[in-house]
Design brief:
Helix content of chain A: over 70%
Distance between the termini of chain B: 48 Å
CATH superfamily of the domain at 386-624 in chain B: Dipeptide-binding Protein, Domain 3
CATH architecture of the domain at 386-624 in chain B: Roll
Shape of chain A: globular
Strand order of the largest sheet of chain A: 1-2
Strand order of the largest sheet of chain B: 19-18-20-17-21
Structural class of chain B: alpha+beta
Strand content of chain A: under 5%
CATH class of the domain at 103-328 in chain A: Mainly Alpha
Oligomer: heterodimer
Shape of chain B: globular
CATH architecture of the domain at 103-328 in chain A: Orthogonal Bundle
CATH topology of the domain at 386-624 in chain B: Dipeptide-binding Protein, domain 3
Number of helices of chain B: 24
Structural class of chain A: mainly alpha
Number of strands of chain A: 2
Largest sheet of chain B: 5 strands, mixed
CATH topology of the domain at 103-328 in chain A: MetI-like fold
Chain lengths: ~325, ~675
């Protein structure tokens, strides 16, 4: 298994390198660059930019060099100094920008994920065990709705409800007075209050998805011979349920767990914009729009890296969870 | 396009219902009132008269904000008298309606540091600022000035005892330092402004002014040739003709050495010195470390979710009763990611003073009462809301000839139903008139608004036939005499204009002119302009006075769509671009005369001539008159003037002197 892991990691290196080339190429594709974008934005605000100003700015930022040279410098700095470049928009190193948003992003994502699993798995089990009951129809219907509703619309609806009931649309993650306040109990409560809508909205479609997967898997497992045998031997229903079918049904969920790694780190984008959440998604979106290329590039690269890593983690987790897969490893 | 519109409609409907429903509940909304409650309590206890006896800080306490009085009493701050300039030099800012009271926050939305001007303009303190109607300038940071008879020597007096926001004295040295080490060295990414050059009326020779210190509070700007509008030009080009020398001394490469400067830049988190100098030298108001003369100074990192500016304890203006300004304690700018959040926040009472375009008029007006705010309209000096600019130098020779044909422009003007456009695009707010200078502004021409403004498709078609676009293709679109397509491509970078451009397409195609609408992003549009690839643009023209800011009307650079490469010809000194001819060349002649003119009357006369040429040629065609800028101000906020002009030249909201805005309890 160790050998397998090592092999996978080694293989990932050329993949990541290849991805970095593609990422850089894609970022360069749209016409214009950060400077023309910035100049356009500033001229809307009434500040004139001449061609010389723009040329000087390009030279300062190194944007006048050929693309391959820019790519080379970027990669060189990453490999040699761990320096991912500079965000033009923020006037800060890329890593500092990412760090600034990481805390809240992780908070929102992890809470959302916990919400998804805590809600979806029990409901999935319930729906399978009580198949075709009123409860099953109710939750299945709900999960179809959840899958089909666009996030941002859901966000708008929940904001509306919150506004009518509590007089506050709960935009952002903090009330105005807490944004810059040091951490305190009140601030944490305020955060928790503001998290309700994003967690529900972002978690909803994932939850709906998980319910369907869990239900389907459970239905497959419920009639397997090992379950029947266990029942014949007189084990309590509850013990049977959790020891055998549930454990087996978790397989596909665990194997996709690694893929959600990227979404944990980026958070959602459109919903975050609608709800004005200070998390990575919108930052990334604006970096792409404004052609803040090193920030955008680092993000794309990071996401690619996480996908590679996530797949690896999933495989290892699966091997750990499922004895059958584990034996296969040992066999080779 | 249509699908997107429908989607937007749905979203809008939902938002409207949120708003409608939300506002009925506004009275028991807890969050905003709680927030406002805290500071206003403090205000009550520190009410001017009462505090005189109770505070124990003497008369000075009655004239400053409670939060500063406390600091002064602690000894953290020097007493007020030492913070203000000497009595005679304190600037007394007239209040709009009444003497205000201290405290409270100006809460607003911004989109982050890229939105720097929306906090920059209202807090700006210029050496000379424009007076109310924009006809001239008045001293602001400067106390007074003298000018000699032929307008070559300007002696400018500063305010004795005036201080930077960190308490260091502000003197003529700060002006000289800025001039010698920053402006003329071009350290902050801007070339030396045109205002500092004077032009010889005969030879056209351009000479840079000299700036000398007379004493600590006086300096002199000397031009080689007369520069009648020097002060106005400075008020436009270079609002702050000064910088805190004691701060910039510590970072400028020239003074600390290249290596050290780079090291400091890195400490601040910057990658290279140039970006660092530009941010600190030009966009300085975003950085808490840099002292300013503004009423509020930055308190935290602008990249956060909330940017806070707090009152400047050394602010040098008082109201007529001698209370130090500003009245409001802080500016709190909350970062938003979508413009609709600004509307939502205003309706919910989260933002107490925000500005909007006319497109939000209906939703704002509908909820005025429920949201407890009022909508103030300021006139804009724009020529129109919706119109087109035809690139006179477009690459395609056929199109260029067509665009330069005045009959074609008349046809495009007559072939569009302005009444319908104003109803659909501007909710009927704008008048169905031609692009023209509004009454009351420099360059107003009687009758211009009605030129070619009727809806007359027959005449339009007749004109097009007369030009020679008589051939038609199988779809009945007109062809050039040589058989090639006549296609107008309208380029824009905002999807908000979609309903307007779709309408235009319909009208133009009714006349047999094939029309494409191309939506590109901002940066691409900019690039396309430089490469002369934008045939038709729907950009607006907004200009207060051509002599102040000429580039919309006079081809001096590239970005204004109608003159295309003529501008490049001028800005490159004839090396690139296309040589202006005919009336465009005449405009440039007038402009050269303006630069060398000896009197204001002459400048205004020449400016009028330039505008008249625009009227004659109508390179810019308008279909809907200008709409006002909307200011949604909480009913609690007082002293906001209602009759100003919203123009970048006058620093937008800054023209209202926000330091004297105040919040009623």
């Amino acid at each position: 298994m160790l050998q397998y892991t090592l092999k996978r990691i080694l293989l990932a290196i050329p993949v990541v390198f290849f991805i970095s080339v593609i990422v850089f190429y894609i970022i360069q594709l749209p016409p214009g660059d950060y400077v023309s974008n910035y100049a356009a934005e500033m001229s809307v605000a009434g500040e004139g930019f001449t061609q010389e100003d723009m040329a000087a700015m390009r030279a300062d930022l190194g944007l006048d060099r050929p693309v391959y040279e820019q790519y080379f410098i970027w990669v060189q700095d990453i490999v040699l100094h761990g320096d991912f470049g500079f965000s033009f928009n923020y006037n800060k190193p890329v890593l500092a920008v990412i760090e600034q948003y990481m805390g809240l992003t992780l908070t929102v994502s992890l809470v959302t994920m916990a919400f998804q699993y805590l809600v979806a798995i029990p409901i999935g089990i319930y729906c399978a065990v009580k198949q075709y009951s009123i409860g099953d129809y109710f939750f299945s219907g709900l999960s179809f709705l959840g899958m089909a509703t666009p996030h941002f619309l859901m966000a708008v609806i929940l904001m509306f409800l919150s506004y009518t009931w509590f007089g506050d649309p709960l935009l952002g993650l903090f009330s105005a007075e807490y944004v810059n306040a040091p951490w305190s109990m009140d601030k944490a409560i305020d955060l928790a209050k503001h998290m309700v809508i994003p967690v529900i909205v972002i978690g909803l479609s994932g939850t709906a998805d998980l319910i369907r997967v869990m239900r389907g898997q459970m239905l497959d497992e419920l009639n397997k011979p090992n379950v029947v045998t266990a029942r014949a031997k007189g084990l309590s229903e509850r013990k049977i349920l959790f020891k055998y079918p549930t454990r087996a049904a978790l397989n596909p969920i665990v194997s996709t767990f690694g893929w959600s790694l990227t979404s944990i780190f980026t958070g959602s984008t459109i919903t975050a914009i609608v709800l004005n959440l200070p998390i990575q998604g919108p930052v990334m979106f604006n970096a792409l729009l404004g052609q803040d290329m090193y920030l955008a590039g680092t993000w794309l690269l990071f996401m690619a890296l996480l996908t590679v890593l996530g797949t690896l983690i999933s495989d290892i987790l699966l091997a750990w969870l499922d004895p059958k897969i584990r034996t296969e490893f040992r066999g080779t | 396009m249509l699908r997107i519109q429908r989607k937007l409609l749905v979203v809008l409907l939902v938002i409207f219902s949120i708003i409608a429903a939300g506002c009925t509940n506004n009275n028991n909304s807890p969050a905003p009132s709680n927030e406002a409650g805290k500071p206003s309590n403090e205000n009550k206890s520190a009410d001017k008269e009462e505090d005189k006896g109770g505070g124990g800080t003497g008369t000075a306490a009655a004239k400053e904000a409670p939060m500063l009085a406390k600091l002064a009493a602690d000894g953290t701050l020097p007493p007020l008298a030492e913070r203000l300039p000497v009595q005679a030099d304190v600037m007394v800012e007239p209040v709009v309606d009444e003497i205000g009271r201290y405290g409270g926050d100006w809460t607003m939305a911004w989109t982050g540091p890229g939105d720097k001007w929306s906090v920059g303009q209202p807090t700006e303190e210029a050496l000379f600022r424009f007076n109310k109607d924009g006809s001239g300038v008045e001293p602001n940071v400067a106390k007074s000035y003298e000018v000699n008879e032929d307008s070559t020597e300007f002696t400018i007096h500063l305010r004795e005892g005036m201080k930077w926001s960190d308490g260091k004295p502000f003197t003529a040295d700060d002006v000289l330092f800025y001039w010698e080490h920053m402006l003329t060295k071009e350290t902050f990414g801007k070339a030396i402004y045109d205002a500092y050059y004077s032009v010889d009326p005969v030879t056209g020779d351009k000479a840079l002014a000299t700036v000398t210190k007379v004493d600590d509070y006086t300096f002199k700007v000397v031009h080689k040739y007369p520069s009648v509008q020097f002060l106005e030009r400075v008020a436009i080009d270079n609002k702050w003709f000064f910088a805190p020398a004691h701060f910039h001394e510590t970072i400028l490469p020239e003074l600390v050495g290249e290596d050290k400067a780079l090291e400091i830049a890195k400490q601040w988190g910057f990658e290279d010195t140039n970006a660092f100098l530009k941010e600190t030298g030009y966009y300085y108001w975003l950085y808490p470390q840099i002292p300013t003369l503004r009423p509020w100074v930055a308190k935290n990192d602008p990249n956060g979710d909330q940017f806070i500016m707090e009152r400047n304890p050394y602010y040098w203006k008082t109201d007529p009763e001698g209370n130090q300004l500003p009245y409001m304690d802080r500016i709190v700018a909350t970062k938003i990611q979508d413009p609709s959040q600004r509307v939502l926040g205003t309706l919910a009472g989260d933002f107490n003073l925000s500005t909007f375009g006319a497109q939000d008029f209906t939703v704002l007006k509908e909820n005025e009462k429920k949201g407890d705010y009022r909508v103030i309209t300021w006139q804009q000096p724009a020529w129109m809301t919706s119109g087109i600019q035809l690139n006179q130098t477009i690459d395609d020779p056929n199109l260029r000839k067509l665009f330069q044909d005045i009959r074609f422009r008349e046809a495009l003007s007559l072939g569009v139903n302005r009444t319908e456009i104003t109803e659909i695009v501007t909710n009927g707010i704008a008048d169905p008139i031609q692009a023209s200078v509004q009454e009351g502004l420099v360059g107003y021409q009687e009758g211009w608004a009605d030129q070619w403004s009727g809806f007359d498709p027959d005449r339009a078609n007749a004109l097009l036939d007369e030009i020679g676009l008589t051939k038609r293709d199988k779809n009945n679109f007109r062809l050039f005499p040589d058989g090639s397509d006549v296609t107008l491509t309208i380029m824009d970078s905002s999807e908000e204009s979609a309903n307007y451009t779709e309408l235009l397409k319909k009208y133009y195609e009714d006349m047999g002119i094939k029309t494409n609408v191309k939506l590109v992003d901002q940066a691409t549009l900019q690039e396309l302009k430089y490469s002369n690839q934008v045939p038709v643009s729907i950009e607006n023209i907004s200009v207060v006075n051509v002599a102040y800011r000429p580039d919309a009307l006079v081809p001096l650079r590239v970005l204004t769509p109608w003159y295309g490469l003529y501008g490049l010809y001028v800005s490159s000194g004839g090396k690139e671009g296309i040589k202006p001819e005919g009336d465009v060349a005449k405009i440039l002649e007038y402009w050269d005369q303006i630069k060398a003119a000896g009197t204001t009357e002459e400048i205004n006369r020449l400016g009028d001539e330039i505008v008249k040429l625009h009227m004659k040629n109508q390179w810019v065609i308008g279909y809907a008159g200008p709409t006002p800028t909307l200011i949604a101000a909480s009913n609690k906020m007082g002293n906001i003037p209602e009759d100003l002009i919203w123009a970048d030249e006058f620093r937008s909201l800054g023209a209202a002197h926000p330091a004297q805005f105040y919040l009623k309890p």
